[in-house]
Amino acid sequence: MKNLDIEGLKNEAPEKPKDEHEEENIAFSSRLVEYFSKKSKDFTKNNKSSLKTDQLKKVYCHGARLGKSQNVENVNFYALARVNMFLRLKAGDKMTQKESLSNTNKPTKLELEEKKSQKRLSSFIDISEGWAPSEKDFEKAQKEIDENNLKHNYEDIEDLYMEYEPIKPMWD
What we know:
The chain is mainly alpha-helical and 172 residues long. It has one domain (19-155). The chain has helices at 22-46, 53-69, 75-90, 109-125, 135-147, and strands spanning 3-6, 9-12. Helix 2 (53-69) crosses helix 3.
């Protein structure tokens, strides 16, 4: 339906320019969801509690946002390490408290007040924000990246297709 001729009017649908990374992001998202599906099935099979693929997707997306806000070098690597941390904790292991990733300069009074209000809100939303993946979580993430073709750099989690939900039409 690119060229549609109605009553003498010629309408042409414009070609949508593709983002150079869009196809890579789609393929990576697909591999990642496949990987999470396998991980959730393996976890449920080997543990008393069940786990859904959507839970791992949410943990990954939250880890990616957290990594971006903390200016980590490789957001994908950090997010996968947080997924490993989540799986480890869900299996019954203990958490570790992270060291501050922010700079060590003395904050101004305004920055201090701003950080306090942000900390209260973020602590209310996610208590795991202060938890850090262990060295083993990072090692496992690197191994899984290599073994499952999950090496991919992106700037923002919104570039991926992880939180897509189909549009549900509302019928009268």
